[in-house]
Specification:
The complex is a heterodimer of chains A (266) and B (323).
Chain A (H helix, E strand, L loop, with lengths): L2 H20 L5 H26 L5 H11 L1 H19 L2 H5 L5 H31 L8 H28 L3 H15 L11 H8 L4 H11 L4 H36 L6
Chain B lengths: L3 E14 L5 E15 L4 E5 L6 H8 L7 E6 L2 E2 L4 H7 E5 L11 H11 L4 H14 L15 H13 L5 E5 L7 H16 L3 E5 L3 H7 L2 E6 L2 E6 L1 H6 L5 E8 L3 H9 L3 E9 L2 E8 L5 H8 L5 E7 L3 H8 L5
Parallel strand pairs in B: 3-8, 3-9, 6-7, 7-8
Antiparallel strand pairs in B: 1-2, 1-4, 4-5, 9-10, 11-13, 11-14, 12-13
Helix pairs in contact in B: 3-4, 4-5
Classes of the chains: A mainly alpha (266), B alpha/beta (323).
The complex binds adenosine-5'-triphosphate and magnesium ion (MG).
Adenosine-5'-triphosphate (ATP) binds next to strand 1, strand 2 and helix 1 of chain B.
């Protein structure tokens, strides 16, 4: 077998198996709830709340914002489980005892969550069309598809960094929930960014999702790929930056744990 | 060149305790340990709890960075050439953790095979062979979650053979296995040995070390106190006999008194149900029996036997009668 196909097969095998192994929500009922009910609940809640507060004018704003933000369920919670789960499984010594390429290992752990997260967004947008009549007739679907993939990827980048924190600290669910809510507030999913104070706007711009949500709104309103291209470039750039930061933290963690003898501490 | 070379290995753990007034507590797990293992040799590492065996194995397995000393595997430095070393070695730490419980045994093996870059075509063939080797044939599709402790341990053995390493580090591999399982496992080790693999084995079972290992090192408080073939170690205690006395509910103070008797070289005890077996090492052999019985006056005594020393007795003497 050719070396490239061999490596691709190994990557794929590792990616899928680690996803099933570590993503605790990957069981039929829990998964269905996280993919179907949770997005539905979030969209209904914020759309009713938001349109009530704004006088019922801008339903699309809330539906699209929350539908894209849903990707953080996979990107933050899912990826964190996939990175931090080895600590609970006690597999860290066996993992770090292999010659596996650490970069492939690390980013591979997020791979399935990108697909998973994108799938979740599609379902959420479907709810939007079905329940709130969001109109997709002017939408450039390939550009929207790209927006979803890019946004999901960049959110997973932040998730990778959070996952490393979960290897280091025990309190990660608290951290994760906080990040999720920060994204709800500051990504522009529910509050228009330009109504925020300046320093909050700066914070918004440093987060993944913000530009992806803006891009999706533009596209669904009939915008073209050229309109959103700069947004998407920045969005993916931010995600990569978080991912790389996460990777450095991951390699630091491995070295530190081998120095301190803490590979097995829970 | 020796396959494994450990020179003046030292490893300290520093643990910080306390939230506000932080204190650093140091444990010298391995103080100064040197030994070599020849190619194809089965080498045993024995020692009481906390002696530093697991720490030594972790250093060899590239999972701990030494504080001082030099450790080489096939001439490769375990810190600088860690990744090369990892391709050559396999290791297991006794116990049931370290597997993905949500995956089946086969999927666990497939995952680790991918981490070791084993060609998928090769692992497809090897995985069923390994499952058969460790006695898990027919159970490979079940989730590890439902495995018993011994089954998980067997799976670890299969896991560590996936990439067909030349060198194996086995830290208490038979702990928790049933007697038949442990015997089968020793058979597996013998087979690996006949395949010319270099093996480092730690165990608390002396007969296991005696029957398997070509040489053993006894480590105590982070230092090697003896290193030789099992038969040479037994020679250290050749001049001694072991008196075994069965007692029922003996007072620990009496044990201390016996230990202080001039003709007693070492004493260890073993609990069995409501009985305690006193194992007294003495040069006087059977002649010591009346004196020993006299010092147990007023206590209920069962069987008394005098026998030749075993590797375990040699070990007890080396580590100061603590076993
Ligand atoms: N991660 C750690 N952090 C702090 N101290 C540790 C750590 N691991 C081991 N130690 C200490 O180092 C010493 C040696 O431990 P080690 O696990 O190497 O012993 P061992 O010979 O394997 O014992 P056992 O027979 O009980 O398995 C012990 O005093 C132990 O408490
Ligand atoms: Mg140990």
């Amino acid at each position: 077998m050719n070396i490239i196909t061999k490596n691709l097969r190994l990557f794929w095998q590792g990616t899928v198996l680690s996803y099933v192994a570590l993503f605790a929500w990957f069981r039929p009922v829990t998964y269905a709830a996280s993919k179907i009910l949770m997005p539905l609940a979030q969209i209904i809640f914020f759309t009713f709340l938001g349109s009530y507060a704004s006088g019922g004018t801008d339903v699309d704003f809330y539906v699209i914002g929350n539908a894209i933000q849903i990707t953080a369920v996979s990107g933050i919670f899912g990826v964190t489980m996939s990175i931090g789960g080895d600590r609970w499984a006690g597999t860290l010594p066996y993992l770090f005892g292999t010659p596996a390429n650490r970069m492939m290992l690390f980013f591979g752990r997020a791979f399935m969550h990108i697909i998973d997260g994108a799938f979740g967004v599609v379902i959420a947008l479907g709810w939007g069309a079905l329940l709130f009549g969001v109109d997709f007739s002017h939408t450039d679907f390939s550009a929207l598809g790209l927006t979803i993939i890019v946004t999901t990827t960049s959110t997973c980048g932040l998730g990778l960094l959070m996952g490393c924190l979960s290897l280091i600290t025990a309190n990660v669910m608290f951290v994760n929930n906080t990040v999720y809510f920060l994204l709800l507030i500051f990504s522009g999913a529910n509050i228009a960014i330009d109504t925020l104070p300046n320093w909050m706007q700066a914070f918004s711009k440093a987060l993944p999702l913000t530009r992806g949500i803006a891009s999706a709104r533009t596209l669904i309103a009939g915008g073209s790929f050229a309109d959103v291209a700069p947004l998407l470039v920045s969005e993916i750039g931010i995600g990569i930056a978080y991912g790389i930061l996460g990777y450095f933290l991951f390699t630091w963690f491995e070295l530190h744990a081998k120095r301190k003898g803490t590979l097995e501490t829970v | 060149m020796n396959t494994i070379e450990v020179k003046n290995l030292r490893r300290i753990y520093r643990a910080t305790t306390g939230v506000i007034r932080r204190k650093v507590k140091e444990v010298e797990a391995v103080k100064d340990v040197s030994f070599d293992i020849k190619e194809g040799e089965l080498f045993g590492l024995l020692g009481p709890n906390g002696a530093g065996k697991t720490t030594t194995v972790k250093v060899l397995a590239t999972l701990l960075i030494p504080d001082a000393g030099e450790v080489r595997v096939k001439g490769l430095d375990i810190v600088k050439d860690a990744n090369e070393v990892r391709k050559q070695i396999g290791f297991i730490f006794g116990g049931e953790r370290g597997l993905y419980w949500r995956l089946s045994a086969i999927d666990n093996l497939r995952y680790f095979a991918s981490l070791y870059h084993v060609d998928p075509e090769v692992s497809k063939k090897r995985i069923p062979e390994l499952l058969e080797l460790v006695g898990l044939k027919g159970r490979g599709d079940e989730r590890v979650q439902g495995y018993s402790r011994g089954m998980k341990q067997r799976l670890h053995v299969a896991r560590t053979l996936l990439h067909d390493p030349d060198i194996l580090f086995l830290d208490e591999p038979t702990i928790g296995l049933d007697p038949v399982g442990a015997r089968e496992f020793r058979e597996v080790i013998r087979n690996l040995q006949s395949e010319k693999k270099t093996i480092l084995l730690t165990t608390h079972y002396m007969f296991e070390a005696d029957s398997l290992c070509e040489r053993v090192a006894v480590i105590d408080k982070g230092e090697i106190v003896a290193l030789d073939t099992p038969s040479a170690l037994k020679k250290h205690v050749r001049d001694l006999s072991v008196v075994e006395i069965e007692t029922f509910g003996i007072d620990p103070k009496v044990i201390d008194d016996i230990r202080k008797l001039p003709f007693v070289d070492a004493l260890s005890t073993r609990e069995q149900d409501h009985r305690q077996l006193l194992l007294v090492q003495t040069e006087r052999g059977a002649e010591a029996v009346p004196d020993l019985i006299a010092s147990l006056e007023g206590m209920r005594i069962g069987r008394v036997t005098v026998r030749e020393p075993t590797l375990e007795d040699a070990y007890v003497r080396l580590v100061g009668g603590k076993a």
